[in-house]
């Protein structure tokens, strides 16, 4: 955070929000002697998070990516299978597919929300079905905290007999039709990376209602160790468990989750005010965001109507030492996935070209918020 040595600290997009309570809990975990992965705070963290997300079981893991990886293995993803991934996502979603040896197939999003387009998903599943492909899973992503359209996606996946692994890395605390994010699909993955709504510095969780799935994921995450005194192994496992010290951080953060989401929500409202009278700019995902955790607030600019583009705004913010960033570069545009198949019509490309995420963190001070809002106002007025 102090990498920049200017008179004023750079205002970041979504820095961690930790304080005294987190410090106390971590110290308590260290003093308890439970330093290794596993321990009472991991158990308590899993239980609290399962409850919060309306799930029977939760397995704490070292990252959200690890949760996706193990969920996909459990769904049967591997060489010779296909996994459908929205092209508008962070690379972790597609990387987890690659780890299993399955083929990622990218599908475009709806422009209003940036989430997986149900009609295109259906089209893709039909195409894959016709060619006799084995589709191991579909991974809807809850982009920037907005739940994917599960009401439409789940019945489609069910009709094709395909498992749903929900990537809820960005949506902890959000609700969709009264149900919590993380409660959708056979399995869901959470992330507690440093930039998410709450953090364990690094960590993740797999959520499911199926006891056998939870047990198997727990086993795979601890080097697939058989219950024998001499460490017997019959298959390849992973070292993916969360440490007890980090679970302590997570428990403290979870106590403050709603308060932190409230701050992000207030920031979004302030951005909506600032851009209210500006033609050619919309606050992304603003309509219908009542249940969203508002992880990141973005604007989408129509350069013809606005007379400026998202990069002009990014440059102006950067000059004021304020961080902003385009939306995720779509996976079908990424060099590493250049050979992957996709069904895209341009929605994700449009959002990438014209969207910009603004400082959205709950740790932003009132002074920092005022600086950002004043910089935005000045930019708009100068145009
Ligand atoms: C952050 C994120 C992940 C990965 O989580 P890590 O804990 O950083 O491994 C996966 N998917 C999405 C959409 C994310 O934003």
UniProtKB/TrEMBL annotation:
Xref: InterPro entries: DegT/StrS_aminotransferase, PyrdxlP-dep_Trfase, PyrdxlP-dep_Trfase_major, PyrdxlP-dep_Trfase_small
UniProt cross-references to SUPFAM superfamilies, sorted A to Z: PLP-dependent transferases
Coiled-coil ranges (or none): none
GO molecular function, a single term: transaminase activity
Lipoprotein is among the record's keywords: no
Cofactor: pyridoxal 5'-phosphate
Family membership: Belongs to the DegT/DnrJ/EryC1 family.
Protein name: Aminotransferase class I/II-fold pyridoxal phosphate-dependent enzyme
Organism encoding this protein: Blastococcus jejuensis
